[in-house]
Each structure stands twice: as C-alpha cells, then as structure tokens.
Amino acid sequence: FKVLGNQIETHRKKLRNVEQIHRNL
C-alpha cells in the first residue's frame, strides 16, 4: 500500500508540473 501511495503522489506532482507548463505557454 505504501508503494501505491508513493505512485499516486508522484503522479500528482507530474500533473502539477504539466499544469504549470500549460500556464506558462
């Protein structure tokens, strides 16, 4: 369960990075 939780956190971070990139564009 801990590993799955880490995957969710990393996925959320990736989504945040993508949102920031789109805002910059």
Can you walk me through this structure?
With 25 residues, this protein is mostly helical. It contains one helix and no strands. It has one domain (1-25). Helices cover 92% and strands 0% of the residues. The model has no long low-confidence stretch (mean pLDDT 92).
Key traits:
92% helix, 1 helix, mainly alpha, MADS-box protein deficiens 1
What's the layout of helices and strands?
Elements: H1 2-24
Write a brief caption for the model.
It comes from Impatiens chinensis. This is MADS-box protein deficiens 1. This protein is an all-alpha fold and 25 residues long.
> In terms of structural class, how would the helical and strand content be classed?
mainly alpha
- Give the H and E element order: H
Q: Strand count, sense and closure of the main sheet?
A: none
Give the low-confidence spans: none
Any idea what the shape is?
rod-shaped
How many domain units? Answer: 1
Give the mean pLDDT. Answer: 92
Number of helices: 1
**Distance, first to last CA:** 37 Å
Strand elements, count: 0
Could you tell me the radius of gyration in angstroms? Answer: 11 Å
What percent of residues adopt helix (DSSP H or I)? over 70%
Q: Classify the oligomer.
A: single chain
Strand content: under 5%
